[in-house]
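Hi R.,

As promised on Friday, here is the backbone we talked about, encoded as structure tokens. Could you run it through your design pipeline when you get a chance and send me back a sequence?
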């Protein structure tokens, strides 16, 4: 008798074509709540007393096992967050829907992203942050583009085509109120859909307010609306074949080549300079050079700097001449302003980078006679110490402070009109999501940058029918399955956030804003240029 195929785990990117996103939220989350507790839906604002303001949806005063709060394109202050938490039963879920908005002002077109403030307010109210999900109002359809990078080799450009979704992107933030007393593992859901009674009650609440796909709430026509980058139509290994040396797989957190290729094509022209101050094995540099751009990379660890140069040498061997006008510097990116040659100041059209984050997202899994073994999960073999210069070994606060310094150096590199593009995603610690995208957005602001856009770079393949096929790591798949068995509605991370920023022309960039503590200065390094064969030249 054939075995039934396992049901795919849900991902962090949803489509709700022609469907009220609240209905989709309730269907997905209600099975993880107490079936005897009501589902409450409200369009905030919540008053300081904790009662929902007058809305077109009826509500009750009793606490809910699932409370869905639609902020439209607004935020949530601490009083409202406490009110929403009070309306959630112990062990229940709070789902907050919000949207980013674009505005024109003295600094030009900028993005207001309320998600970080909402997460901070709800966590301050005592709830645990479980998941961030992007809901799109239009189906995904991959646009064929067999050679986006234009180099004729059919490289990662074939996986780097873009889906423009012009309307209806909603951010869903899911929280859980701790159970009273100790926190035992919740009872696992027993049915794939919500109980009929709950579904009917929710239908009565949401029917009064229609939501039409295409209303464009929270989006700017001038900015082109939210965007989805299809950067995983091919897996990472396929994207690198013949373009990177095999040893490149040892790096624990490599950027997808198609993502780098897309950013280069989107924000630069042939001959422009593309920089990455945390370049690792040089993915940004290689994709820039193969697209006819020049590249500048900075890397602290000697092993990765040598691999980056080797990958650039391979591009040169393949006939990409701008590789000879591209550099890999070994140094500390937190102090670019102290040692970077002034000729690079104001020279880059694009600075593309990604911070180091959670070890659960890193590494390779190998099957051995004694079981599964995780390898290549570390940036360096140097022990973690309070003064460690590698940000991958820093505490969370030091990571944010150090990354802010890196972004100040990125601002120094930018030419007028240039962009900083940051690829980032959250990670999970002890079951709770760490909101690294919000921390990075705050770092960008502290570094004198203003956000202009937030896109989605898929870590999943889009089929011709518009379905997402996730490419999770072994450990991510295992953790999500285990959490869902315990009754926690976690999802496979199927996207990375792409934060687009530029210089804030209304701010003063003349002061020295270096903030990292002196204990870390001992390990700081000035520049060394990496050349062929792994040698360095000062």
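Update: got your reply. Pasting your designed sequence below so it's all in one thread:
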């Amino acid at each position: 008798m054939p075995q039934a195929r396992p049901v795919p785990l849900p991902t962090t990117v949803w489509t709700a074509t022609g469907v009220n996103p609240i209905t989709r939220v309730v269907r997905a989350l209600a099975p993880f709540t107490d079936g005897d507790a009501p589902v409450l839906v409200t369009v905030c604002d919540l008053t300081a007393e904790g009662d929902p303001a007058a809305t077109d949806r009826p509500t009750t005063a009793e606490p809910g096992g699932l409370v869905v709060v639609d902020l439209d394109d607004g935020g949530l202050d601490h009083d409202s967050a406490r009110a929403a938490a009070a309306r959630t039963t112990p062990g229940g879920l709070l789902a907050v829907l919000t949207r980013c908005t674009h505005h024109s002002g003295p600094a030009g077109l900028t993005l207001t992203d309320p998600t970080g403030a909402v997460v901070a307010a709800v966590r301050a109210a005592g709830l645990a942050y479980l998941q961030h999900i992007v809901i799109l109002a239009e189906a995904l359809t991959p646009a064929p583009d067999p050679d986006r990078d234009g180099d004729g080799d059919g490289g990662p450009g074939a996986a780097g085509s873009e889906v423009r979704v012009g309307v209806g992107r909603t951010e869903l933030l899911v929280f859980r109120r701790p159970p009273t007393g100790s926190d035992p593992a919740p009872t696992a859901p027993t049915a794939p859909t919500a109980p009929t009674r709950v579904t009917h009650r929710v239908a009565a609440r949401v029917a009064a307010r229609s939501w039409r796909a295409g209303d464009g709430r929270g989006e700017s026509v001038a900015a082109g609306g939210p965007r989805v980058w299809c950067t995983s139509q091919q897996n990472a290994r396929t994207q690198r074949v013949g373009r990177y040396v095999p040893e490149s797989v040892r790096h624990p957190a490599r950027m997808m080549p198609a993502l780098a290729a897309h950013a280069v094509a989107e924000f630069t022209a042939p001959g422009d300079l593309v920089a990455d101050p945390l370049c690792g094995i040089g993915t940004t540099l290689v994709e820039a050079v193969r697209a006819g751009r020049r590249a500048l990379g900075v890397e602290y660890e000697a092993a990765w700097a040598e691999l980056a140069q080797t990958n650039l040498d391979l591009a040169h061997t393949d006939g990409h001449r701008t590789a000879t006008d591209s550099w890999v510097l070994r140094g500390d990116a937190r102090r670019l302003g102290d040692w970077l040659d002034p000729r690079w100041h104001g020279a880059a059209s694009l600075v593309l980078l990604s911070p180091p984050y959670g070890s659960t997202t890193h590494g390779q899994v190998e099957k051995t006679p004694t079981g599964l073994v995780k390898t290549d999960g570390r940036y360096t073999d140097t022990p973690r110490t309070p003064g460690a210069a590698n940000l991958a070994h820093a505490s969370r606060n030091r990571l944010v402070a150090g990354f802010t310094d890196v972004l100040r150096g990125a601002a120094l590199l930018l030419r007028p009109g240039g962009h900083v593009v940051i690829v980032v995603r959250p990670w999970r610690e002890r079951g709770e999501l760490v909101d690294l995208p919000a921390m990075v957005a705050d770092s960008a602001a502290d570094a004198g940058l203003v956000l202009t856009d937030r896109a989605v770079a898929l870590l999943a393949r889009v089929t011709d029918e518009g379905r997402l096929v996730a490419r999770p790591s072994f450990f991510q798949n295992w953790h999500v399955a285990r959490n869902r068995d315990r009754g926690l509605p976690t999802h496979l991370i199927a996207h990375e956030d792409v934060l687009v920023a530029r210089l804030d022309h209304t701010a003063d960039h003349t002061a020295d804003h270096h903030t990292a503590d002196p204990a870390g200065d001992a390990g700081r390094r000035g520049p060394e240029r990496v050349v062929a064969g792994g040698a360095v030249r000062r």
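One thing I noticed while checking it: Residues 196 and 516 are 55 Å apart (CA to CA).

Thanks again,
M.
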